Every structure is written in structure tokens, then in C-alpha cells.
Amino acid sequence: MAVIATGFFDGVHLGHRQVIQTLVSSARQRGEEAIVVTFTQHPRAVLQQDAHSLRLLNSPEEKVALLRGLGVDRVELLPFDRAFARLTAGEYLQTVLCGRLGATQLVLGYDNRIGSDRLTPDRLAPLAASLGLEVVIVPPASVSPLSSDVTPLHGSQPSETSCYAGPLPLPSAAGPSLLRSRGRLRFPKAAADSASSSEELTVSSTKIREALAVGNVEVAEAMLGYAYTLRGIVVSGKQLGRTIGFPTANLRLYDPMKMIPARGVYLTEVEVLGSHYWGMTNVSDPIETHIFDFAEDIYGLDLRISFRRYLRAMRNFDGLEALKTQLAADEATCRGLLEGKLR
């Protein structure tokens, strides 16, 4: 017997976390297993709905780790292909959730769509009841651009806790009260139109992708509940930065389907060799990071970068001396942010 939540859960953001909190709490009260049913492929990729431009917030491994960290007993990763996509909501409930997994209760987000007939939670409830399956509908989460839960920058050393290590904090209720004020978000110029200064944003994976696409990593962090992260292996590059005192680690992503923030320069947290550092990352081709106060050889090693602040747009420089001057200014800006001297 199990309480089940189903969906793609890309990002495992604050809205998803409300669903998972409800799932885990209900399963514990009923003495049943808490199961998340999700998919190896995004439905849009299989059905070719803008599949060429679709990029994801989590790799499958990241998503499973985040879900398990929230107390889920089991994550079922189902292959999503065209045959699976033809299942109606009724067939999916009866054959997969009830028949295979023993569902007694189904926890759904307010915007879930189930089956080839894309039934909403309200329309699904009577059908589920006919199968002896209770449906619980979870309302949306919202954030305010003027008062959002972006983790403060803490001094000279970043947190020693990875974004994916251990449980993430659970929201206590729906709506904007989920997020305690920690100061005003700063919008990069490119992102000025992504949200007005007064409207609340309903959290969604689409809005997070839109924020990242214009470099608005702070709004993405507010909606995710953690800093957006890329992970890959360090590869060799032109080593130009080394000649002007700013060596960089070039990142080759493990998962090419991961969403990459807008081109530009960012303050980032870096995890490498089991330790955490601050750095500044140039998102271009390649993605390259200068790690502060670090001089180890890390070619071929695992590297994780978490985007904390947008600094500036990409620029062309007349020569190496101009580039060196700008990089020094960028580092000074980063250190000022870390010391709390800048906002």
C-alpha cells in the first residue's frame, strides 16, 4: 500500500516540495510507503513539443537525490515513450499506480495533467474514486521579487554543505508566507522584464528556466529553494587566463540536457576535491571558472558550480591587459559581495 505523487518534478522546486511534504506526511500517518513516480524522459522531448530547445533543471540522478532527501521512501523512474504517452488517465491509474504500485492515495500539484486525455486534478478525482483512490490537491507556492528567500552570502568561505547533500528544508504551508524575507533580489539588466517589482510569482519549472535564460539566478534560487548548480568534469582549455594571473577550470557537463544560465559573468560557489570555495564563472563556450584562493591541478576531476549572483554581461576586450583589468574588477566585486560591502 502506498501514497503516491506523480509528475516530472524538474528542479524539485518549492511547489514540488509542498507536494512531497504532503506525500510524506500522509504516508507516515497512514503507515504506508511514500512513492514518487516520475519519468526518465520529459514528455515534451518524446512528443517533440519544442524538444530541440528544451533543457532541464536536474539530471535524473540529481532529481532522485533531491526527492530522497525530502523523505521519499522510493522513487520509481519510468521510461516515457510514445506507447506510454498513449495511456489515458484511467489506464495509468488502474494499471500503473493501483495495479503495479498499490496506490491508496494520490497527491497532485494544482497544475498536474494526467494521461493522454490530460485530466486536471479536479476532473481526475471522480475517476480515481471509482478505483478506491483518494486524491489530494496541493495549492501552488509563490515568491515575491521584493521579499524572497535567497540564501545570504557568508563571508570568505561558502557553506560546506552541497546542494544535494541531505534533506532540503520543507515549506510549512502554501503561498508567499513560505519565504521569509532575507532582502531584496537584485535583477540584472537583461532580466528587468522577467517580473515586476510588486507581483508575486507562482513557482514553476518554466518560470525558473525563464529566469535562468536571462541570467536571473537569484529569482531562480528563490523558486528552487537552493542555488542552481551545474556539474561536470574539468577539461583543458587554451590556458589564456593562467598567463594573466586568472587560471580557470573549464567545465564539460555530465548531462548535456542541463539548462545553462544566460551568457555572462557570475559569482559562484565551487565544490572540488571535497572542499568548497568561492569563484567567478564566465558562462560562454566553454564555461570557465576562476576559483579564489586555489592553486591545485584539477584536470579530469569532478567540479560543481552553484550560481549565486549575476555580475555583468559578456564583453569584448582590446587586449590581454584590458581583460586582466576587468577580471580584477570582477573579483573585487565578488569579494565585496562576500564581505557584505556591496548589494
Q: What key phrases describe this protein's structure?
A:
Elongation Factor Tu (Ef-tu), domain 3; 13 strands; six-stranded antiparallel β-barrel; alpha/beta; 23% strand; 28% helix; 2 domains; five-stranded parallel β-sheet; 343 residues; Rossmann fold
Helix content: 25-40%
The CATH superfamily of the largest domain is Riboflavin kinase-like
Taking the alpha carbons of the first and last residues, their distance comes to 51 Å
Q: Report Rg.
A: 22 Å
What is the total domain count?
2
Count of helical regions: 10
* Shape summary: elongated
The third-level CATH topology of the largest domain is Elongation Factor Tu (Ef-tu), domain 3
CATH structural class of the largest domain: Mainly Beta
The secondary-structure class comes to alpha/beta
Across the major sheet, the strand order is: 8-9-12-11-10-13
Q: How many individual β-strands? A: 13
Q: What's the architecture of the largest domain, going by CATH?
A: Beta Barrel
- The percent range for strand residues is 15-25%
Secondary-structure element string = EHEHHEHHEHEEEHHEHEEEEEH
User: pLDDT under 50 segments (min length 5)?
Assistant: 161-197
Sketch the major β-sheet.
6 strands, antiparallel, barrel
**Nearest-integer average pLDDT:** 84
